[in-house]
Amino acid sequence: MFKYILKRLVMLIPIILGISFLIFFVMSLSPGDPARIILGEYATQEDVEALREEMGLNDSLIVQYARYIFKAIRGDLGTSYQTGQPVIREILERFPFTFKLAIGAVMIAVVLGIPIGIISAVKQYSWIDNLSMVVSMILTSMPGFWYGLMLMIIFALNLRWFPSTGASSFKHYVLPCITLSCNTFALMIRTTRSTMLEEIRQDYVRTAKAKGARAMRVIAKHSLRNALLPVITVAGMQFGILLGGAVVIESVFSIPGLGTYVVNAVKLKDTPSVTAAIMFIGVIGGVVNLIVDVLYTYIDPRLKSRYVKPKAVSRSEKEAA
Amino acid sequence: MKKAISLALALCLLLTLCACGSEAPKAPEEEKDSAPAENESVLDTLDSGTEGEAASDQKPLRFRLKTEPNTLDPHKTSGTGDPQVIQYQMYESLFREEKDGTIVPALAESYELAEDSTFIVIHVRQGVFFHNDTPMTADDVVFSLNRAIETGYNNAYVGAIDNVEKVDDSTIKINLKYAYAPIITCLSTLSTAIVSKDYVETNGDDILTRSPMGTGPYKLEDWVSGDRLVFKAYPKYWRGEAQIKDASIIFISDNTAAAISLETGDIDVMTNLSTADIPTIKENPELQFVTGPAASQLLVTFNNASGVFADARMREAVYLCIDRQAIVDVAADGYGVVQTAPLDSVLVECPKDFEVPEMNVERAKELVAEAGYPEGITISMPTIDNGTYSKPATLLKEQLAPCGINIDIQLMERAAWDDMVIYNTNYELAIWALPITALDSDFCASKFLGANCGGGGNFSNCSIEEIDELILRGRFLPLGPERTENYLKFCEAIRDNFVVCPIYTNMRNNAASAHLGGVYPSATLHMYMYDYYWIQ
Amino acid sequence: MEYRTDDATVYAVNGVSFNVGKGESLGLIGETGAGKTSIALSIMRLLPDRIGVITGGKILLDGTDITAAGESAMCDIRGEKVSMIFQDPMTSLNPVMEVGDQIEEVLLLHRPEMTVEQRRKKTDEILEMIGIPAERKHEYPHQFSGGMKQRIVIAIALACEPMLLLADEPTTALDVTIQAQVLEMMNGLKEKLGTSIVLITHDFGVVAQTCDRVAVIYAGEVVEIGTAYDLFEGEDHHPYTQGLFGSIPNMNVDEERLHPIEGLMPDPTILAKGCSFADRCPYAQEVCFREKPHCREKNGHRVFCRFSKYPEADREEDVEYE
Amino acid sequence: MEKKGRSQSGAIWFRFQKNKLALISLVILGAIVLAALFANVLIDPELVTTTNSSLRLQTPSAEHWFGTDLYGRDVLARIVYGARVSLTVSVTAVFGALIVGGLLGAVAAYFGGHVENIIMRIMDIFMAIPSLVMAIAVVAALGASTVNLVVALIVARAPQFARVVRSAILPIRDLEYVEAATACGTSHRRIILRHILPNVLGPIIVQTTLQMGHCIIQIAGLSFVGLGIQPPTPEWGSMLSEAREYMRRYSFLVVPPGLAIMITVFCFNRIGDGLRDALDPKLKN
Q: How much is the pLDDT for B38?
């Protein structure tokens, strides 16, 4: 098990390297000279040239990348072209906002989505099942900014229940979390429903019923635990996705999260910031997946034997399952 | 055993995540619990150290800006807009632009400008303190001006300065490279803001990026990255402590969301109000709509030196096709003023009712044909990806189509556009809102100086001797009829050569709570929270 | 009882009637798809939701009709008075629950008066009884072999010492040696606890070994019912029973090939008007297609066939059956 | 073999048409596709881009059924033409992603070993980058144009297809009939195309329809960030994000593009779900 975790962490390294190279490469393709962006329009060509030299922008892409990576290995993720601040500091400043947002969204999705999914599965084809299916479809059928603005107009402007923008209190997170959870919520309902449908047809459920267990108990004690396994994986993956995918919601509700940070950095050609932030998101995503997988083994005894004998189960395989 | 170790390891990973989560400089939720109203969350706790009575009638001010600055270092900031608005609260220069556009001495007690405008002697104001309570001296002024020159960000404003020398403890002398009349205006920009010499020298040159040290009315208390800047009135400010003691500048990137926040009372004042929201704001008795012309004009610019529009006939054709009012009506929802002269309308030298050729699509068509495109031509137009530019671009496309110029709008982000159009002039035609930070015609006219081609800010790539002469002449003419005459000639020269085609003057559309007094529009975004006060 | 699907209604069990005495074991024998499992599920009232429906008849347990019992009452009956051993031990256990807990759950449900300690002890006893060391109760199903899993399933069924045990092919998934063990165990339990057993199988050997009485099921109907002796040694049989016997390889006679019953089971979506076996019966008369067969009884041995006298089939001349 | 295939698709159709919602969705989507195909017959193309500042922001009327937008253009015309753009972009993007991702996934699953490892690790790298950020970066690097937008969408979606296809093939890879084909000396290409792909069509079709919906939404998201379709091309997502500023006073502006997106995405999702149930009957009943 210990070996397995170590192995998984080691396997993250090539992925992180790949991410950083890819981002470095894509960023270098895009037009715009970072030195020029920093100095502005009045700067003379010599000033710009001098700054380029200072920033090492005149070296070849490979040299720049190698330099960046060697620094990164020593723990220095570079300084932002734009602000001159250590990138890692900026990321750590931004990350809590995104983290809370993502946690909130996943929580809402899990807390509401799983029970609704269960009810839908247990009462398959009932009106409640149909309703929840339609609602989940509608939630995935509109872009996030639209829901965000709608919620803001309804709950912040008309009802005055929640503040409209900002991130300084718990209340501020309610609307953005709900907006962000739309997709995940729908996904949770659908995943729970389908795994639950599969589980309640299993033989062991019949065994449990034959023991005289009542329907609620059969669902709660038997089907649910089995059905939740894939749901947990999906929730974990969603969490990873939401960490970097909340750009639009963050900008609608003006939450200073990582998503907007990355997008702004892309726009300003701030390669170190973009690279480090995406690497950071990648690592966090990988670690979350790993945590989910490890927790998984404690929930599902069948997997434990697989992990104890470290037969490599790659992350992608896990996700595909 | 192994099980325990691995479980512990998993928990460690989880904890690391949580730790990252709580490493925020301020964990907002915890503060919230005790705060009675959500509007006062952050500031309330910051207040706790001071006397309690102030909080009762002292509502904190929340000022919305669209974008967060990368740096608060005034000498390392370029361009116009939100970064300046922030710095005006914390920094001052030797002179200050007042709300009516006049320039008054600020950190300069008095000054003497040489007859021939080649040097200026400044008596530095005494009894001014930096936010660390150290007094400002002539040394600080000399240091700041030299630093501004060295950084290279602000050649437009400090380019004329040859050197700065300290005469005595309260007097400095600025020698100019050439006679330069607008020097006083230059010294009112933030590019020449006065910073503490000791502070910078002790803490290193980069310290000002996030920890400013100026003499302005507000002192920066906290910077919540991406969210807000928290200020506190500086009690020893030389003009007297600001009326509003606590203020923060909040960053809300979406204009619609910002307007909603203003209505819900989550912010008190905002810039960049979307024109679509103006009617709503006007209807709300709790809010006030504050507007005025901006020192920013939207214009169609051509690459005068190469490509299709190097041919003056093509540029003239565009002139003849443009319906300015239609663009104002749609792109600015009518909140804009048609502009014909290439000088910002707020400048004193801007000619009124400047005549331009009348619309004539037939003639435009002929011109395009004469220029060698009887079948018409398709041109790709780089356009910045926000409504300010894409809306007029859409209309321009419609208006130019009849004369045979088909525009292909190519949206791109600001940085790429700047690189393409402003720095490398690698384009045919584009739409730009040309802003100036300080009110002098020279700042506007200099963009057309032949010597500024290729990196000096001359985005139209025009290099016409007549225009160059007029620009250089304008620089040492003092305000007066002669200067006005000079700039009229300049405008005519630009028009006759069809260098750029002005469309309209943008408005500074601001909105604020009706309870906030002292809010006024500033053409150059000189917005001082110092002037604001609460109406009881 | 019927299965109603989107496509059609399947008449799975039709007019089956039998009784099981206390401490008696009844074997239900018949082809795959004859409706044996459906009978058991009907008794348990565990037919698939919305699809399986009991349309008529009575199931009397200790004098009360359980078809009329509410779901809540059924929950009290299941596991307590009637319990069932399912076909496939591999999938019948919850994979994420310790086996001990799975056994204990029955006690938890039906013996609320027992203390935690008592339940644990009882669980251990049951495990020991089925030959699994009690200390393995904290293991999960995937850690057990197929035979052991089946024994655990049996343990779950027996935990509350039910009046009636429905064993649905308990040995099919097991290899022969384990089969014997399991059957022996069931027999022992019957003796020890006085449980009535309904054993569902298609294996004559198993029936012969364990059952007091045997019912032959065909197309959802009982075609013959009697003591094991009646069936295996008696002379008077339903033609289907004869056919079944005919399809078992006889080791004593040197045969070239097996003797399958020709034809297929009738379409279960069509309710037969006459004798359901008529299509495949070599002796079928015109009347068999029209009317339901009579029942003839001799000392409790009932055969549902119109004709009592038909030529004893010559096993070596199966050609004649056509 | 042929006949069997037909009867199998017949059975799938039988099961599919039982799902009324999916069937209705199919009909609606069909109507939308037809409207898109015959847009120029239904509506004068001039209406789509002709601006008129005196006619702007008019409420729905007999002349302009859905009203006019901020440029004074007819919203109905733009919705109908927008169907063309939205559907074309999402269909090309999804099929592009399917071809790129599907082939990579198939190759990975089929060859296994190092090939699989390398391909899937590369896919992991792409997956780790948030797809909107990826799309923005690609558009920024290549320049904004409809073609580059499609490229960006393909890059962002291909890894998902790779994974779906790979995980669909993995269990089939070692089945007897594939071994039999290998034993007969059939080429790899032929085995993948002829023997394996037909069997993974189910999950692929489902994934494709679901991705169509996601794609339309993502274009809208990109429009919000400013990098969608180039104006004045009508496209639902950019219409929605253009109308966003005006939606408080002129709510009729967001309704048509919003409904168009919602209905189309809903239909794609429902059809996808219907197909999944039809292709995998064991989930039902």
A: 37
Q: Where is average pLDDT lowest: A310-319, B225-234, C102-111?
A: A310-319
Name the residue in chain D with its Cα closest to that of C4.
Answer: D285
Contact assignment for C51 to D18 by CB distance below 8 Å: no
Residue A270 domain-assigned? no
What pLDDT is recorded for position B139? Answer: 92
Q: Can you give the pLDDT at residue D7?
A: 61
Answer yes or no: is A25 within a domain.
yes
Taking CA–CA distances from B283, the nearest residue in chain D reads D249
C5 touches chain D (CB under 8 A): yes
What is the sign of the dihedral through the CA atoms of C99, C102, C106 and C111?
positive
Instruction: Tell which of D209, D224, D271, D273 to mutate to test the A interface (max A CBs under 10 Å).
Output: D224
CATH classification code of D21-51+62-283: 1.10.3720.10
Instruction: Tell me, yes or no, whether A56 and A108 share the same domain.
Output: no
Helices and strands per DSSP (H, E), number in chain C: 10, 13
| CB-CB under 8 Å, A305 with C96 | no
**Residue D45 forms contact with B (CB below 8 Å):** no
Q: How many CB pairs under 8 A join A and C?
A: 78
Query: Which domains does chain B possess?
Result: 5-286+514-534 (3.40.190.10), 294-507 (3.10.105.10)
Does A147 share its domain with A221?
Answer: yes
> Residue A65 sits in which domain range?
19-73
* pTM of the model as a whole: 0.80
A129 contact partners, CB below 8 Å, separation of at least 6: A119, A120, A121, A123, A193
Residues A66 and A159 in one domain: no
Does the bond joining D232 to the residue before it have cis omega, within 30 degrees of 0? yes
Does C76 sit within 8 Å of A210, measured CB to CB? no
Q: Does residue A164 belong to any structural domain of this protein?
A: yes
User: Cβ of A26 and D141 within 8 Å?
Assistant: yes
Per-residue pLDDT of chain D (285 residues; tens, 9 = 90+): 344 444 667 777 877 777 788 888 899 999 999 988 888 888 887 877 787 878 888 888 888 888 888 888 888 888 888 888 889 999 999 999 999 998 888 888 878 788 888 888 888 888 888 888 888 888 878 877 888 889 988 988 888 888 888 887 777 766 666 677 777 777 777 776 777 766 677 778 878 888 888 888 888 888 887 777 888 888 888 888 888 888 888 888 888 888 888 888 888 888 887 887 777 655 443
- Whether A210 and A106 map to the same domain: the answer is yes
Given B22, B260, B422, which is nearest A164 (Cβ)? B260
The tally of CA atoms less than 13 A away on the side-chain side of residue C111 is: 19
Instruction: Kindly state whether residues A58 and A104 are assigned to the same domain.
Output: no
Phi, psi of B379, deg, nearest 5:
-125, 135
A215, A231, A256 - which closes a domain:
A256
Q: Give the span between the Cα atoms of B145 and C56, in whole angstroms.
A: 102
Into how many domains does chain A fold? 2
**Region of B143 on the Ramachandran plot (φ > 0 left; ψ -120 to 50 alpha; else beta):** alpha
Contacts of C194 (CB under 8 A, 6+ apart): C22, C23
Question: B279, D232: Cβ pair inside 8 Å?
Answer: no
D46 touches chain B (CB under 8 A): no
Residues A185 and A63 in one domain: no
**Residue of chain C minimizing CA distance to A213:** C75
Q: Chain A residue with minimal CA distance to D249? A: A153
User: Is residue A52 domain-shared with residue A152, that is, in the same domain?
Assistant: no
Q: Which residues in chain A (150-209) have CB-CB distances under 8 A to chain C? A: 202-204, 206-209
Question: Which residue positions in chain B have pLDDT lower than 70?
Answer: 1-57, 79, 454-456
Contacting C residues, span 118-147, partner chain A, CB-CB under 8 Å: 140, 142
Q: Facing residues of C164 across strands?
A: C82, C196
**Does any CB of chain B come closer than 8 Å to the CB of residue A172?**
yes
ipTM of the complex: 0.77
Answer with the one of A256, A284, A313 that is the final residue of a domain. Answer: A256
Q: In whole angstroms, what is the distance from residue C270 CA to residue C291 CA? A: 15
From B419, B409, B408, select the one nearest B385 (Cα to Cα).
B409
In a domain, A113, yes or no: yes
Verify whether the Cβ–Cβ distance D221 to A145 is below 8 Å. yes
pLDDT (tens digit per residue) in A163-192: 888 877 888 888 999 998 988 898 888 888
